Predict the 3D structure of the following.
Amino acid sequence: MDADMETVCGIAGGVKEKKFKAAEIIEIYLKNITKQETKINAFISTRAVKALDEAKMIDEKIAKGERVGRLAGVPVGVKDNICTEGIKTTCASKMLENYISPYDATVIEKLKKEGAIIIGKTNMDEFAMGSSTENSAFKTTSNPWNLSRVPGGSSGGSAAAVASDFVPLSLGSDTGGSIRQPAAFCGIVGLKPTYGSISRFGLVAFASSLDQIGPMTKNVKDCVLSLEVLQGNDSRDATSSKRKFTAKYLLDSHDANKMKVAIPKQFFGDELDAEVKNSIMGSVERLQDMGVKVDEVSMPIDEEILSAYYIISSAEASSNLARFDGIRYGYRTSEYNNVEELMINSRTEAFGEEVKRRILLGTYVLSAGYYDAFYNKAHKMREAIKRRYHDIFSKYDLILSPVTPTVAFEKGEKIHSPMQMYLQDLYTVSVNLAGLPALSMNCGFDKNNLPIGLQIIGSHYSEEKMFQLAYLLESKLDLKKKVIL
Amino acid sequence: MNITKVEVQHICKLAKIKLGEEGLCKTTAEFEEILQHMKCIEKFDFEEEAMKSDKEGMQANENIKQTHEENQTLRKDEVVAFRNHEKLFKNTKDMKDGYIRIPKIIE
């Protein structure tokens, strides 16, 4: 594949300049999928014929000299919890196995308007609950770097699809690390933008005060262009920001090398794998060589933070998932004598183990007698975390940290211990609780050739700074390793 | 922290989820472990934490909160009809004369 065909910017530019046709691009990517998908299992559904038709329409427009969008001809994979009109949106759950959304999510409208072509819906942990994509009701996705390992989760299908060259861009959703952790495990770039930057209209809600849609790409420039397309106010999402967003994040001249960066020492504790730590510190040294000022700071990430996250997210999930009652849409049991039984049996038969666990946990922390002990305390904790971050951002431009304690783990390794799986999110959940933006990018490989991720955390709406530093580091590291399937 | 099977059963009832005897035992044990971790939040000293953050930081945090709130406005609560009934009800299992059919509630 020609280098321009591998990236979002390359494809969009090449199609517009008539270097190649949109249909050619779609054919190449579909061929990759046909050849390798049985090994990876990144998709829940694909739409080859329609994608090709759409590409041909773009080519016709170009031939006639008509205007095409900023993502003309770019194949996209969409996490299966984002509504797509006329295409199944299953949330990887038996509950929505046959659900066809009657409308498009705002992000899908935006992608289509800019000429992007949806090639398929990607696998995920059921209702985005999980860190390995093993909680999908339909299939387990493999990590393209090592097929016996997990791709991370919950946006594991989206990450694996980008790393396997099935698409140059995919959409994920991040409630506690679900874009950043799989991006780290699959060696790609994943962005969880500031809460309120991208409309959540049409994203099947897990924990509404934490959920955020974001792009997953092969490089920083592609991530920048994708955010520029996806961001913006939407009257259908009351939490989407009205502010004037930066139109162009990466300018030719910037002063990333003059930035002050904080390294929180607690993010580098005993639980962090030595190889991951060394790789991140190596990147930090590279940045220092370029003039970036780096200081060690204190930012406690105690167990309380993880607890606050699981209390708040489960509480919101238990409320959000109450809508699945087997009556209006979704799975309906065949065994019932009355409405109560219809609801109970439908939910019991269609929800997977982890989803049930979170609903029950959420119901518990919201129930009489426990509300103050858990839910209220978790909210106080959330305020404390915001303050801790703010204290750092009053003195520093950005924070650098690991994304995950280890590289991608083996399939089956943690699935039987919920607590072990929850600990995966140690470095990522505080970002969601504070509503901050964070980017995960590849910074090296371990001795088994598995990618290592690095996290750049910014203050609210500081994506511009994050991109500049990420771009600087990416150019300096110049990692050229590719997946060999 | 001791959570009993009876408590888990009560939560199941509230959440409209059924667990068999085996599931109930497993979930109770898992909850025991998870709640053990979550309990740490009860002991956390929030006042001490707030003291640690300097006043300037607190004020700036308030400012951020305000900017956030200013950025987010509520739209007018106007009804917008979704007219494509065919698409909307495509996902409904049992319909009759434009209504969703469910078991009898009142005899």
